[in-house]
Amino acid sequence: MPELTVAAAQYAPVYLDTAATIEKCATIADEASRRGVDLLVFPECFVSGYPEWVWRTRPWSKTARASYRLLFEQAIEVPGPDADALATIARSHRLHLAVGVTERYGSTLYNTLLVFGPDGALLLHHRKLMPTGGERLVWGSGDGSSVRAVETPIGRIGGLICWENYMPLARTALYADDVQIHLAPTWDSGDVWVPTLQHIAKEGRTYVIGACQAFHTDDVPAGIPGREEMYPEPAWIARGLSTIVHPNGKILAGPLADEEGLVVADIDVDNCADGRGLFDATGHYARPDVFQLIVDRTPRRPVGERDTANHVPGLEDAESG
Fold this sequence. Notes:
Layout: E1 4-10, H1 18-34, E2 39-41, H2 62-74, H3 81-93, E3 96-105, E4 108-116, E5 122-127, E6 150-152, E7 155-159, H4 168-176, E8 181-186, H5 193-204, E9 207-212, E10 214-216, H6 227-230, E11 236-245, E12 251-257, E13 261-267, H7 270-276, H8 315-320
Parallel strand pairs: 1-2, 2-3, 7-8, 8-9
Antiparallel strand pairs: 1-13, 3-4, 4-5, 6-7, 9-11, 10-11, 11-12
């Protein structure tokens, strides 16, 4: 494959304003397109803001509940008009677009990663498997149907959201699916996160794109519940540290800290196969006689339907006695 240009979009959303944040996505995509970017990756929950209050409030407090209501109102549906707007951005700029969103399905919210192709098609719809800590008061849990890599003209793309990347079996499932570009949208901007991205790249012999928000207290609008109590002093809430890593573990671009911007690098996915010639965690370096992983990719829904074609007449009467 030819060399590609990829980018992590390290920006703050227009907090809890989905329409304005999608407009900002379009502006950033326009800049990325002018720079020849083939794949643009936005952070976890970029549309429309990470619910950081879960780490600063008491569960079910007045502030927490009011904040949840705002998040619920701004969550997007997939499919739906907001998802269509993101698809339009990908299509109009002819690039692959990965965006972290809060998704609403019925009355449950999910931490979701959407990947669109340059034709606007939705290629990957991944819900975070296990929300972390206080996040469990906000988001439901995803299933294994999207723990996979998808074939695209620029390589096999897969992704895990934030601390899902610390789940070794989830990573293994993607390695076994021959992921070549591993997306790691996150809120984590701690010192250990960048070495984590390097480890994943080296372990999986895959390119890794870590995208995090650069989010400051100034980005929290007046009127947000509990703003003054939670953020009494100006400070970076998330520093960013967006980074792009080579399959050998070396950093190609970033980490960018304490500012907004695009983190851009050129990649060649043929380097993945070269690296796996020496170490392939789920291939020649594996020991399936000792270790095995079974991935259940069945979509799970709390409520299903019974096919009436399988109905047995009189069964209800027999069961009722």
